[in-house]
Write a structure and sequence with these properties.
The chain has five helices and eight strands; from the N terminus they run βαββαβββββααα. The chain is α/β, with parallel strands linked by helices. It has a domain of about 140 residues: 3-Layer(aba) Sandwich (Collagenase (Catalytic Domain)), CATH 3.40.390.10. One zinc ion binds next to helix 5.
Length: about 200
């Protein structure tokens, strides 16, 4: 978060663009688009890799630099379609050991890493479905920032800060009513009368 929050009426988004940053396994982007579509009423579309060549790394570390990736992605996003960069490589910023994702308040792009959402990272069995569910939640959290939302204190709100994957799992997959009211129309499906899960 680098800018002050956007005020006023929620922004209008037409669709969400999901783009690979560095190599992704076959089918990963499509699986994420499908999972995100269960939660968002906006069309979720896989787009070609937006960045070519050498990707920015955190100096002296094996991780990609999340903030510099954002700077590269933002000018490539369409005004009414946030660009979600997705990488399997671990990401960080110089002051943090790692981040799950990164966004700028009021920004046009977000970036997330699947590396630490993967149970295999913690020595647990492979589970692509779990990775997709966690990634969809993380994408919505970062898009919340892009829409101008800061972190929320509600323990069951997706905008709550999470420093670990366990904490991220605990905050669930939905926004509190206050945060939901400030999101772009259609970013999350109306859950009125629908079972959660
Ligand atoms: Zn956050
Ligand atoms: Zn909230």
């Amino acid at each position: 978060m680098m800018d002050s929050p956007a005020h006023g009426a929620p922004r209008t988004w037409r669709e969400i663009h999901l783009a690979p940053v560095a190599q992704l396994d076959e089918g990963t982007l499509e699986r994420l688009a499908l999972e995100l579509s269960k939660r968002s009423a906006l069309p979720c579309r896989a787009v070609p890799p937006p960045l070519a060549g050498e990707l920015p790394r955190v100096p002296n570390r094996p991780q990609l630099d999340a903030d510099r990736l954002l700077v590269s992605l933002e000018p490539l996003a369409e005004v009414d379609a946030p660009l979600v960069g997705i990488t399997a490589v671990d990401i960080a910023v110089p002051i943090f050991a790692y981040v799950f994702g990164r966004a700028r308040l009021g920004g046009r792009a977000v970036v997330i890493s699947l590396a630490r959402l993967d149970p295999e990272h913690y020595g647990l069995p492979r589970d692509p479905g779990l990775v997709a569910r966690r990634a969809a939640a993380e994408i919505l959290h970062e898009l919340g920032h892009a829409a101008g939302l800061a972190h929320c204190e509600d323990p069951a709100c997706l905008m709550r800060f999470a420093a670990s994957v366990e904490a991220a799992d605990l905050r669930g997959a939905t926004f509190c009513a206050d945060c939901a009211a400030r999101l772009p129309h259609g970013l999350v499906r109306s859950t009125a009368g629908a079972p959660q899960g």
